[in-house]
Amino acid sequence: MFKNARIKLTAWYLVIIMLISVSFSGVIYRVLTHEFERFERLQRFRIERRFFDENHPPQDLRAKFILPLDQDIVKEAEDRLAFVLVFINAGILIISGGVGYFLAGRTLRPIKEMVDEQNRFISDSSHELRTPLTALKTSLEVSLRDKNLTLGNAKTVIKDSINEVNSLQSLSDELLQLAQYQKPNGIKLFTEVSISEVVKVALKKIAPLARQKNISIKINIEDNRFLGSKYALVDLLVILLDNAVKYSAKKSQVVLECRKLDKQIAISVKDNGIGISEKDLPNIFDRFYRADFARSKTQAGGYGLGLSIAKKIVVMHSGSISVESKLKKGTKIIVCLPIK
Q1: What is the DSSP letter of 220?
Q2: Which of 278, 272, 238 is nearest to 255 (CA)?
Q3: What is the side-by-side order of every strand in the sheet holding 253-261?
Q4: Range in 3-17, 33-47, 49-63, 78-92 with the lowest mean pLDDT
Q5: Are 182 and 219 in contact (CB under 8 A)?
Q6: What is the reported pLDDT for 249?
Q7: Which DSSP helix (H) or strand (E) runs through 335?
Q8: Structural contact between residues 232 and 265, judged by C-beta atoms closer than 8 angstroms
Q9: Which residues 6+ apart lie within 8 Å of 237 measured at CB?
């Protein structure tokens, strides 16, 4: 599709360039041929004046010396001019074709990347949605065909179905959130934000999960104000804290630090959980990527979208995000946001 579009765009570039080039060539040809004739007349007039002005010969003798314009010389000059212009236009056509094809590729590249990203997003989403839907459908069909289904078994099936529906709801919420931050402009309603206020809201959202696992969250922050999206930054901290709590053992500790470094706000979330293997670190920000079975949704409940969303938020704020992790020793995620 994009190859055809690139060729069509190149063709339009060529049409526009050649129309301009041929039009200018026509004007140049007309002007120069007129100048050739005018130059010939001026030269003849000067020669006549220098030769006859002093002697004043009779009119019939003057006519013998006045030669008509040599049309062959003028025509030869016009032909040579036409050949040069055609040669130049042919060169412009060839060069413009190559340059136009290159520029068409550069023009269409962002659109192609966006469409490819959308196609991958749809494909990945469809795959992730299909799995719980298939499990839910299979469970209900088996139960429906079971003639000896008891009330207890029916309640178990309903309970499992509700869990799958909750899982689907969580996935759809994350997909909508990712799509929101994946827009070209994202959520760029930047206002002056207090990092302590952002932390306070994020902690309130993550507190139930932390209490459930009896995990304490140690906070060490320096309050700073900078331009950003409070809504997006709260989402960022919730994602990082949620991951830290989910992959930490019960009765452990998660450390959240925020401090100012030069012209940046450095935010770090550290846990003592299961960690991430070195081979998985380069891919953890990819959409739907789950490092291994130990960090899969069967263990911690997730679809591998959190860190992808977190990276989108950080990029939206022109910041950077990095991960330090060792298996069975924990993970530390560091976010640096510029102070604007």
Answers
A1: E
A2: 272
A3: 216-221, 253-261, 264-271, 330-338, 320-326
A4: 49-63
A5: no
A6: 87
A7: strand 330-338
A8: no
A9: 198, 199, 202, 256, 267, 269
φ, ψ for residue 156 (rounded to 5)? -65, -45
**DSSP 3-state assignment of 253?**
strand
Backbone torsions φ then ψ of 279, nearest 5 degrees: -70, -20
The pLDDT tens digits for 203-236 are 998 998 899 899 999 999 888 888 888 888 998 9
* Contacts by residues 141-146 (CB-CB < 8 Å, ≥ 24 positions apart): none
Secondary structure of residue 25 in the 3-state scheme: helix
Model pTM score:
0.59
d(CA 165, CA 132): 8
- Output the CA–CA distances (angstroms, integers) from residue 188 to 181, 198, 228, 287, in the order listed: 10, 16, 8, 22
Phi/psi for 304 (5° steps) reads 75, 25
8 Å CB contact between 82 and 29: yes
Amino acid at 48: E
Q: What does the alpha-carbon distance between residue 302 and residue 174 come to, in Å, rounded to a whole number?
A: 10
User: What are the tens digits of pLDDT across the range 132-173?
Assistant: 788 788 888 888 888 888 888 888 888 888 877 877 777 777
Residue with tokens 């055809």: 4
Q: Which of 248, 246, 243, 247 is nearest to 307 (CA)?
A: 243
Alpha carbons 17 and 99: distance in angstroms, whole number: 11
Q: What are phi and psi of 337, to 5 degrees?
A: -120, 135
Residues in the chain: 340
DSSP state of 48: H
Q: Which of 40, 12, 311, 49 is nearest to 181 (CA)?
A: 311
DSSP 55: T
pLDDT tens, position by position, 240-268: 999 899 888 888 999 999 998 888 899 99
Q: 20: how many CB neighbours lie within 10 A of its CB?
A: 11
Paired tokens of 288 = 């739907």
